[in-house]
Design a protein that fits this description.
Length: 571
């Protein structure tokens, strides 16, 4: 296969970051807006001209196919290396893929970021997967039997206490300040008197929120055992507590938890819960456990010279509702679909969406001057940064989590028996992708079918390497695409017939994050083409989607794109 000769090296230093295609070049501060606009247009015309040369050489269509499999990822990971699959029984080499054989000269993998502010495409996939995970634990499916829908389950919300009066929307309609605030008012959640607001307590409560949730689950098991007349040790022989929770930020910057809590039999969702396990018992146990939960921390932030105990607890507003109850959405019932969609929505959001803070870590506090954030979030970050200098708070690592306003726990967690896992969902999607017919060359087919990601008809296809047969096999689970992968890493992959006879030997190295300028411009053209394509009848759309699953860029034709690039270069 011919390799595209791009006007820049395929491998760039790790520290380099590709420039944005439409970023205004840096210059003097007195550059006028029209001049900046002309510079952006000139840059766009220059990039379009380079794409036109690639189109004339016949290299544009393969590039569009590889980039299209990213599904619109904003910051894809670039890898260099190779992967070989062979039959472990006979030693026969099934296929060998080298990154140099790919159209871009590198393997492009989706970033897989869950944050909607960082990568909308990957966060959408994460939200879809979270929805399936939560829904499976409520109505069955995947590895969970359908009988789980008859088990006692509640939807609980645990909030933070108050640290000072803030602008809000009470039931009376008027805030404490005497005014009525609309939903989009930036004052909502900000303190009425910032000088008297307990910022230190607010940050430290966020830092202890994960410990509060862990202590809450312990008290919840104790309350269930107490209500059923059992000891906590013997409870596991009669019932199992399963839950899935997500952390959401309030406008005031405090974390509160939404959780689906379910009671199963002794072996999990496959067993029937005992007769005493009712929704009402679970409701009362959740409320009692939330009221009893306490976490102690040595040292008072208000008094450096005295030692004491700072006690953290949940707020008084504890909401517990039986799923299939009322008042979840107005007068509508609390259904599995409502709960799963509600939790999945907040799984892709962080403090930046509600509080107006940052979505990435700070290296230096001085970096705050370059970010446009709210004053309330700025003061909470400053508080976290300065509290980290005190020895009694060193274990909280507040500087590392200052952008999260002190919260350092997982956004979403679940128990082992609640339902399936995200890794299983990704493996199923990757296996389905691998089994689809593909009209590309073997190298492109393997790259797009096993590693790259796409969205077909609004449904995610493959968001990141997560299956034993993917192209990037050899990465250590949970370590993403960092450098230093061991060469000759071996993984056993399953064949479609269920026999584990495929040996995968791979070696990948990190080459950078983000597309290079020409490829980024091409990705923007593909995205614009997808947004402007006309609506077709359902049957026609399905036909096109089947072609997309074969590895072609979603929602565009490479021939039409080539014509558009050539026309843009002439213009």
């Amino acid at each position: 296969m011919n390799l595209v000769e791009l006007p820049y090296p395929a491998i760039v230093p790790t520290a380099s970051r590709p420039s944005q295609a439409f970023t205004t070049p840096s210059g003097s501060a007195d550059v006028t807006a029209p001049a900046a606009g002309r510079s952006a247009l000139e840059r766009r015309a220059r990039l379009t001209g380079r794409l036109a040369k690639l189109a004339a050489a016949g290299h544009l269509a393969p590039l569009a196919q590889q980039i299209g499999t990213l599904g619109g990822c904003a910051h894809p990971i670039r890898l260099t290396g190779h992967r070989t699959r062979l039959d472990s029984a006979t030693g026969e080499i099934l296929d060998h893929i080298d990154s140099g054989q790919l159209p871009a000269g590198e393997l492009l993998v989706r970033c897989g970021n869950r944050r909607a502010t960082r990568c909308p495409a990957c966060s959408t996939v994460y939200r879809y997967d979270t929805y399936q995970l939560i829904a499976a634990g409520l109505r069955g499916g995947r590895t969970v039997p359908a009988s789980v829908a008859a088990h006692p389950r509640v939807f609980a919300t645990l909030t933070a206490p108050g640290f000072g009066p803030v602008h809000n929307q009470p039931d009376s309609g008027r805030c404490h300040c005497g005014h009525t605030h609309p939903d989009d008012n930036p004052l909502l959640g900000t303190p009425l008197d910032p000088e008297r607001y307990d910022y230190a307590g607010a940050v430290l409560w966020n830092a202890h929120a994960p410990a509060l949730w862990a202590r809450f689950t312990t008290h919840l098991r104790r309350e269930i055992a107490k209500a059923s007349g059992l000891t906590q040790r013997s409870l596991r022989y009669h019932a199992t507590l399963s839950y899935a929770k997500v952390a959401e930020y309030q406008k005031r910057g405090q974390v509160h938890f939404h959780a689906v809590i379910r009671l199963d039999g002794p072996t999990g969702p496959t067993s029937t819960p005992p007769a005493w396990a009712t929704t009402e018992l679970l409701n009362q146990a959740v409320r009692a456990a939330a009221a009893r939960t306490r976490v102690h921390h040595a040292g008072k932030p208000q008094d450096e010279g005295r030692s004491g105990w700072l006690v953290f607890r949940f707020g008084r507003q504890v909401d517990v509702r039986a799923i299939h109850g009322t008042d979840f959405t107005g007068d509508g019932p609390v259904t599995e679909r409502h709960v799963a969609a509600y939790i999945a929505k907040y799984a892709t959001k962080g403090a930046e969406t509600t509080t107006g803070t940052l979505d990435r870590r700070l290296r230096l506090l001085a970096e705050l001057v370059t970010h446009d954030i709210t004053d309330h979030a700025r003061r909470m970050i400053h508080t976290a940064w300065h509290l980290a200098t005190r020895p009694q708070h060193a274990h909280l690592r507040l500087r590392q989590w200052a952008h999260m306003l002190g919260f350092r726990g997982h956004v979403s967690t679940r128990t082992r028996h609640y339902s399936t896992a995200l890794a299983h969902l990704r493996a199923e999607r990757a296996a389905w992708r691998t089994g689809q017919p593909d009209a590309q060359t073997p190298a492109q087919a393997s790259a797009s079918a096993e590693t790259q990601a796409g969205q077909t008809g609004g449904s995610p296809v493959s968001d990141r390497a997560g299956h034993s047969t993917d192209l990037a096999a050899g990465h250590r689970p949970g370590h993403g695409h960092s450098t230093g992968h061991r060469p000759g890493r071996r993984d056993i992959a399953a064949r479609p017939d269920g026999s584990d006879t495929t040996l995968v030997i791979s070696h990948w190295q990190y080459a950078g994050t983000g597309l290079l300028p020409e490829l980024e411009h091409l990705a923007d053209l593909l995205a614009a083409k997808r947004q402007t394509r006309p609506e077709q009848p359902t049957r026609t759309r399905r036909s096109k989607r089947s072609g997309d699953r074969a590895g072609h860029p979603v929602g565009h034709s490479t021939d039409r794109l080539t014509s558009a690039v050539r026309a843009g270069a002439v213009a």
